């Protein structure tokens, strides 16, 4: 499988629009980037570009912050979830390989 190219993952939204959508200030959004909680792309002119997935992540971060969760804890949770997703993807790939080998399925078919 290739990279996710759905509309949710396309980085096309400016920080001003993200601020309006999330209710966060532009400074808060930049702070979450500094804390490595969000990863916008940069345009040729250096402007930040966000995706709808980034907007959802920022809303989740804001909700957790309101509950008193520190940014460090949020980051550690994000790392843990990312590692679990990678592990699951690898397990699924290995399982498909084992099934294909068991039943003699060629990858090209």
Automatic annotation (TrEMBL):
- Report keywords, A-Z: DNA-binding, Repressor, Transcription, Transcription regulation
Give one Pfam hit by family name. MerR_1
Signal peptide stretch: none
Superkingdom = Bacteria
Q: Which InterPro entries match?
A: DNA-bd_dom_put_sf (IPR009061), MerR-type_HTH_dom (IPR000551), MerR_fam (IPR047057)
Residue span, HTH merR-type domain: 12-80
Q: Which Gene3D superfamilies would you find in this protein's record?
A: 1.10.1660.10
Q: What is this protein called?
A: MerR family transcriptional regulator
Q: What is the scientific name of the source organism?
A: Robertmurraya beringensis
């Amino acid at each position: 499988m290739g990279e996710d190219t759905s509309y949710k993952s396309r980085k096309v939204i400016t920080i001003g629009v993200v601020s309006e959508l999330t209710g966060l200030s532009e400074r808060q959004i930049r702070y979450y980037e500094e804390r490595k909680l969000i990863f916008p792309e940069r345009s040729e002119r250096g402007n930040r570009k966000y995706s709808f997935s980034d907007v959802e992540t920022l809303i989740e971060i804001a909700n957790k912050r309101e509950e008193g969760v520190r940014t460090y804890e949020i980051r550690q949770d994000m790392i843990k979830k990312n590692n679990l997703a990678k592990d699951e993807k690898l397990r699924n790939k290995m399982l498909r390989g084992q099934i294909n080998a068991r039943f003699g399925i060629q990858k090209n078919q």
